[in-house]
Write a structure and sequence with these properties.
The protein is mostly helical. The chain contains 6 helices and 4 strands. It is globular, with a radius of gyration of 21 Å.
Length: 236
């Protein structure tokens, strides 16, 4: 689950791809359950060009290095603060996985519902008004001989919530091509009754159904067991 979800996909802006991969990797891991995991879930965006590090708000700025207490604050308040942060991150994780599952399905109505729900969630995270879709950012101007003048807008994200849902929006943006080949692995887990893999990934090949050779083998084994069971039932 810790391996990057992207393999072999190169189309699109590299910085947008980087943010999208961070979001999908978060969704592919279990939801944070400890203070250190909450810090990691936020700090993963540090250093990304879209994130303004000096104004980034997160737990890391208020916890000591061990993640055990607030710097200069009542130690008894740390448990409530961490619990509150974990609750929000679990909510993000749930919402993102729901949206990604909808995007991974082929049904247009399901994809449309996921995108419609994301619009309200993204506006909430970015503080956008209904009629004024403005967010703080920088205009990037570059000129290269042979390629001409290029203008670009770089958003300045200041919270993990903004980074997660902006990255999700990049992936789900109908005007971009970042979701080409995006799917979800439905291979069974190794032990019966544990459900399925559920990992999100980009297909390297058009007919690729599973995220890894290990999942491909597990799916083939499960299919073989089903065939044997059907054969035995027919034989009586």
């Amino acid at each position: 689950m810790g391996k990057s979800a992207q393999s072999g996909v190169t189309n699109g802006d590299p910085e947008e791809w980087q943010l999208v991969r961070l979001v999908v990797d978060f969704a592919n891991a279990p939801p944070p359950s400890k203070a250190a995991e909450a810090v990691e879930a936020e700090e993963r965006f540090k250093g990304h060009p879209f994130v303004e590090a000096k104004r980034f708000h997160g737990l890391a700025g208020t916890l000591d290095r061990a993640g055990s207490r607030f710097i200069g604050s009542d130690p008894h308040s740390v448990a409530a603060a961490v619990e509150n942060k974990l609750e929000y991150l679990t909510e993000y994780w749930t919402d993102i996985r729901w949206a990604l599952a909808g995007l991974a399905r082929e049904a247009p109505s399901v994809r449309s519902a996921a995108r419609q729900r994301l619009v309200a969630r993204l506006r909430q995270a970015l503080g956008c008004e209904e009629d004024g879709e403005l967010i703080e950012g920088r205009v990037n101007i570059s000129f290269r001989p042979g390629r001409g003048l290029r203008l670009g807008f770089i958003p300045l994200l200041q919270t993990a919530e903004q980074a997660y849902f902006y990255g999700l929006a990049l992936l789900m943006d109908s005007g971009r091509d970042l979701a080409r080949g995006f799917t979800q692995c439905h291979a069974p887990m190794k032990k019966p009754g544990e459900g399925e893999c559920g990992r999100f990934f980009w297909r390297d090949m058009r007919r690729q159904r599973y995220c890894s050779p290990a999942c491909t083998r597990l799916a083939a084994r499960a299919a073989n067991v089903c065939r044997q069971q059907r054969f035995r039932r027919r034989r009586g």
